[in-house]
Inverse folding.
């Protein structure tokens, strides 16, 4: 006998929904602080609707096939939204798992099967809902990871502030060890600030950077080149003797970049430049050899 | 396939001794080439001493566009006019550096105002706030 | 179900269409602005190559998912004469100078994954991928 679930869900939809709602609302784990009864009702109705449509196809096992796409979409939205509100992954998955009981009741009460068939059919339903419940957990994890990543990026931007030292002069004091990822974010922030403040001079101070490797040095040079293309110049200050040695050792060519030992000297130089005393007439970003 | 109409050409404005071009659309190659031709003609026609190309609205500059800017710059120089490209967006600048495009000979400034200052200083005109720029 | 967008490239107006399509898909997968710019620029270079040397062809865009990571794969396929010496074409000397460089080396630096299949008489297929 074919699995009666599709038929049962269609014919007893209301009863199943009511029992499910009753069960969710009376559960001790209900987060009334995070969700209202009306929302729970809407979510449950939605799930039941798409689930019912999906099972009509007769496919009660493969949730990755097209019939279940609307179900996965609904659960995806559901999971992300619950995650954002502060529900834990288990609380979110419980929504799906809790559907088992009303479904099993409906199966039992339909009375059309012998015990062996009944057991088989319940097993099928059990597996299906397990898969769907686990799916919500996966989506939950994914979206948490996205949130964390975005927060990290924001923190990176906040933790490396670009300061305006004077009109037309900004400074970026780099502190701590630089890894490739952080350096990119930092450099992009500097270039963006140059645009926003209309600053033609940027001082990148690396006094607070203990070591500079090839990748970081290349990033620095690329940033200087990019700033030039935009119409601004960079001065790198705070190159300690050890770093200077490392750079020479790594054959990093700083000959086209203005460097100063301290930020103070860099600022002095920058002020002289911007007052027009030693300002070049036309800035060539790629000076010919 | 669209027909290339004369109306699609980018307008070139005269601002005193200089020409100003504001590129606001993602141009197909022919339009970029046409602009190069138009600028060269106008420099001669209007005896312009400088050209400002405002690319602050361009979110992509690829090698074709880059070469157009470099070529325009070179041709203008032959005609005794200087070119300044202004307003390059940070993401574009970063990408061009990575692409490795050699834009030597192209002068750049942060915005039109600074670009104009640069041009005025170059040809010995006083800055708008009264100081005369360097040697020429 | 795989979701591939295809654009045929037959004239320079199509290069603009390719840029817009790649931008759209790059935004879809939430690439940072700089990464978007990089892949759109790379696509512009490669689409132009296809037009200039391959006699035009087809560009396909495919959003990817590797676990949590999302990415965008763009392919440039032409039935042109093919590139006799791919290694030579990849060298940077081809991108600078007054000639119309193939720009392959530059495009490669703008993306995470780059592969090229080409042989005389067999056409060319360039595949680039940018991951978030």
């Amino acid at each position: 006998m074919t699995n009666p679930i599709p038929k049962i869900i269609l014919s007893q939809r209301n009863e199943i929904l009511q029992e499910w709602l009753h069960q969710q609302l009376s559960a001790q784990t209900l987060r009334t602080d995070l969700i209202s009864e009306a929302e729970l009702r809407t979510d449950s109705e939605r799930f039941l609707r798409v689930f019912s449509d999906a099972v009509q196809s007769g496919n009660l096992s493969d949730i990755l096939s097209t019939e279940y796409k609307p179900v996965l979409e609904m659960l995806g939205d559901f999971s992300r939204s619950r995650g954002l509100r502060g529900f834990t992954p288990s609380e979110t998955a419980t929504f799906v798992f809790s559907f088992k009981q009303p479904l099993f009741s409906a199966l039992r009460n339909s009375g059309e099967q012998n015990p062996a068939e009944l057991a088989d059919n319940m097993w099928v339903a059990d597996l299906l809902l397990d898969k769907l419940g686990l799916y919500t957990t996966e989506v939950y994890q994914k979206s948490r990871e996205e949130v964390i990543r975005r927060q990290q990026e924001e923190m990176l931007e906040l933790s490396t502030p670009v300061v305006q030292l004077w009109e037309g002069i900004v400074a970026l004091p780099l502190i701590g060890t630089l890894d490739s990822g952080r350096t990119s974010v930092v450099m992009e922030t500097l270039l963006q600030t140059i645009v926003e403040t209309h600053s033609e001079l940027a001082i990148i101070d690396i006094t607070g950077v203990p070591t500079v490797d090839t990748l970081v040095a290349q990033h620095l040079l690329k940033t200087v080149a990019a700033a030039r293309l935009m119409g601004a110049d960079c001065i790198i200050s705070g190159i300690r003797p050890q770093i200077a040695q490392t750079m020479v050792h790594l054959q990093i060519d700083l000959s086209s970049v203005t460097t100063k030992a301290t930020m103070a000297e860099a600022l002095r130089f920058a002020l002289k430049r911007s007052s027009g005393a030693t300002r070049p007439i036309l800035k060539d970003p790629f000076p010919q050899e | 396939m669209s027909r290339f109409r004369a109306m699609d050409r980018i307008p070139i404005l005269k601002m005193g001794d200089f020409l100003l071009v504001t590129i606001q659309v993602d141009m197909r190659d022919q339009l970029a080439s046409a602009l190069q031709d138009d600028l060269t003609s106008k420099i001669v026609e209007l005896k312009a001493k400088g050209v400002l190309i405002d690319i602050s609205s361009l979110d992509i500059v690829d090698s074709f566009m880059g070469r157009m800017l470099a070529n325009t710059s070179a041709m203008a120089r032959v005609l005794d006019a200087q070119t300044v490209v202004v307003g390059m967006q940070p993401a574009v600048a970063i990408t061009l550096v990575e692409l490795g495009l050699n834009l030597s000979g192209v002068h750049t400034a942060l915005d039109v105002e600074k670009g104009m200052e640069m041009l005025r200083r170059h040809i010995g005109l006083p800055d708008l706030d009264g100081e005369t720029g360097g040697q020429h | 179900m795989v979701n591939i967008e295809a654009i045929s490239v037959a004239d320079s107006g199509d290069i603009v269409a390719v840029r817009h399509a790649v931008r759209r898909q790059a935004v879809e997968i939430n690439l940072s602005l700089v990464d978007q710019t990089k892949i759109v620029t790379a696509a512009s270079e490669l689409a132009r190559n296809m037009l200039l040397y391959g006699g035009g062809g087809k560009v396909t865009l495919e959003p990817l998912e590797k676990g949590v990571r999302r990415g965008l794969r763009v392919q440039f396929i032409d039935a042109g004469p093919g590139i006799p010496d791919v290694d030579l074409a990849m060298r940077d000397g081809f991108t600078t100078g007054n000639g119309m460089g193939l720009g392959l080396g530059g495009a490669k630096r703008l993306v995470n994954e780059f592969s090229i299949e080409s042989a005389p008489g067999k056409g060319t297929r360039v595949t680039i991928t940018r991951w978030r």
